[in-house]
Design a protein that fits this description.
The chain is an alpha+beta fold and about 250 residues long. It contains seven helices and ten strands. It has one domain: Phosphatase 2c, domain 1, CATH 3.60.40.10.
């Protein structure tokens, strides 16, 4: 890829929301990123209603990163579809899936938002809520926005029969920064109508993470930002943010 690994900086963090910590449950979000011929990053939110949602989220992120990091970018949409199918097939055979077919996939329900970036060109792939942003300047951005069902609390999962119909692709180019987030952060990163981004949230995070030379300090600072009492009070869901500097 044109962007050398030394030019790319990636910081990711996940924190459990108050809804889970109050019940002494772990965070159901998961994220992964890898750099091969492509840069790939994926965030998934395991459904709270699914018994093994965190397992589904982990399988989804890890498998997609493994497959897509060296996939041909010229056919990346087809490669994403094949990769999701591979995850579904793996989970059909999982030891917790007693039916050993797609009827048991609902146990592993999770959302999906990810990116493949290659030679200054990128594609977001997205099922359900969560969101993705590519930032080109202060006022120039491309977004893959959350998608919910008939009701605001209803979303879509990669384990559903209609997953392919709900899989969305968004292309962009020449980004400076890329952000992937679970639904616990979308209300912070976007205006209420999702037409614009919240510069007071995005700006300081971009500035600090770009300038902090220590990856461990940057990661800890991002985690602390997601876990402030104010952030937890405003949204009790689990929160994940993967921030990427590509130029």
């Amino acid at each position: 890829m044109k962007n050398k690994p030394s030019d790319i900086k990636i910081i990711g963090a996940s924190v459990a929301g108050l809804f889970h910590t109050s019940q002494k449950q772990p965070c159901q979000d998961y994220f992964c990123y890898k750099i091969g011929r492509n840069l790939v990053a994926v965030v998934s939110d395991g459904a709270g209603s699914a018994k093994y949602g965190k397992i589904g989220a982990r399988f989804l992120c890890d498998t997609l990163c493994d497959i897509l990091q060296n996939a041909p970018f010229s056919s990346i949409e087809e490669e994403v579809i094949k990769a999701v199918k591979a995850v579904r097939q793996r989970l059909e055979l999982h030891r917790f899936n007693k039916s050993k077919d797609d009827n048991g996939l609902s146990l592993f329900a999770a959302t999906l938002v990810g990116v493949v970036y290659h030679k200054n060109n990128g594609v977001f792939f997205h099922i359900g809520d969560g969101a993705a942003l590519s930032l080109h300047s202060d006022d120039d951005f491309c977004a893959s926005r959350p998608e919910n069902g008939t009701f605001s609390c209803e979303t879509f999962f990669f384990t559903q029969q209609a997953w392919r119909e709900n899989l969305r692709f968004t292309s962009f180019s020449k980004a400076k920064h890329i952000l992937l987030m679970s639904d616990g952060l979308t209300s912070f990163a976007f205006s209420p109508d999702f037409k614009d981004i919240e510069h007071k949230f995005i700006g300081p995070i971009n500035a600090f993470l770009s300038q902090e030379p220590s990856l461990s300090k940057a990661r800890k600072a991002l985690q602390n930002t997601l876990n402030t009492p104010k952030a937890q009070k405003l949204n009790p869901d689990d929160k994940t943010l993967v921030w990427i500097k590509v130029s």
